[in-house]
Amino acid sequence: MPRYLSLVRIDESNVPAEGPSPELMQRMGELLEEITKAGVMLDTAGLLPSAQGTRAHLKGGEVSFTDGPFTETKEVVGGYAIMQCKDKAEALEWAKRFLKVHGDDWTLTLEVREIEEG
């Protein structure tokens, strides 16, 4: 059965100041419990803000590091999920449900890509 990686893309400058509401966290917990019981969820987590991250760059055979925040970046990966679904349509249905849990106060993009096996 194929596995899919979904990347939550978020504009850190456009997040509600108070962060996720208790109601959102409850709805998210219920959805994550459902998707786990369905045998679909393999792993998921949110990520710390990009200001706490570091980028590694390779150029001309040399590796360099840049600590966050990354001023040139508007949209960053805010979390991920690895799901095992029967097909892409099922993965996209779970993605849709994940996005809808957030309600009207959030603007998110969820990129869903099949994981190449082998």
Description:
The protein has 118 residues and is α+β, with helices and mostly antiparallel strands. The chain is 25% helix and 37% strand. The strands form two sheets. It has a four-stranded antiparallel beta sheet, with helices on one face. A two-stranded antiparallel sheet has the order 3-4. A hairpin with a 2-residue loop joins strand 3 and strand 4. The model has no long low-confidence stretch (mean pLDDT 91).
Short key terms for the protein model shown above:
alpha+beta, 25% helix, flat, 37% strand, 4-stranded antiparallel β-sheet, 118 residues, two-stranded antiparallel sheet
Summarize the structure in short.
With 118 residues, the protein is of the alpha+beta class.
Beta-strand portion reads 35-45%
Number of strands: 6
Oligomer: single chain
Shape: flat
Relative helix content: 25-40%
Spans of at least 5 consecutive residues whose pLDDT stays below 50 are: none
| Derived structural class | alpha+beta
Present the secondary structure layout.
Layout (H helix, E strand, L loop, with lengths): L2 E9 L10 H16 L3 E6 L7 E6 L2 E6 L7 E10 L3 H14 L6 E7 L4
Antiparallel strand pairs: 1-5, 1-6, 2-5, 3-4
Helix pairs in contact: 1-2
